Amino acid sequence: MYGTLCTEFYDIDKQFAEADEINFYQKFLAENSLILEPMCGSGRLLIPLMQAGYQIHGVDNSVPMLESCRKRASALGLSPTLFQDSIETMTLPNQYQTILIPLGSFQLLYPRSVAFDALQNFKKHLQLGGKLILDLFVPWEALDDNKQDEINEKSVTSSEGYIIHITSHNRANKFEQYCYSESKYQKRLDGDLTSEENEEMHLSWYYRYEMELILEKCGFKNIVYQEEFFRNETHMIFIAEK
Hints:
Blueprint: H1 4-14, H2 19-26, E1 34-38, H3 46-51, E2 55-60, H4 63-74, E3 81-84, E4 96-101, H5 112-125, E5 126-136, E6 149-157, E7 163-173, E8 178-189, E9 192-204, H6 208-217, E10 221-230, E11 233-241
Parallel strand pairs: 1-2, 1-4, 2-3, 4-5
Antiparallel strand pairs: 5-11, 6-7, 7-8, 8-9, 10-11
């Protein structure tokens, strides 16, 4: 579950989806259909799709992320329908024509049994013939024995002059196919520490044929795999039908 400082960092670092990513998803979306974005966060993709006229709902387990989503949407004159819930156990009042999860967010579900429960739950929330779209990636660098245990750092600066710095200790298990990260966020103004936050996170990965088999075992059909290039990187896209 993302906290307050993580949300602030994320909003500065990623902001909103760019045109190439939005254009990719629009190829699968009908104007009058109902769309769900699980793990929607602060609306990086949800808000631009709302601006484009799509009817899209969001669900996330992070209260700070959802609060940020509402605030950012409101500044643009939008009122999103958002649910605070865990996606593997959620029971929403609607069924959807499309469920989409961009940028590998699905891989934050850990252990794998949770991810499998989420896939079954997505199927329950899809209309008959509806489509699930997953954007995944393999962190190939994690397979390098020299990068199994490393520390990364990054900073962003807000429009108010705050600097948020993240230090992450990442450990990869290439046999179990996950990375474990312990991170510390520190927020400073004029050099003074104003707040800090700790975070633990797992990130799993799946290879192409492995994910195709998982989707099939979860009862999806007409599974299509394609590679797309946007955000200056290649994305593993899985499209599966209920």
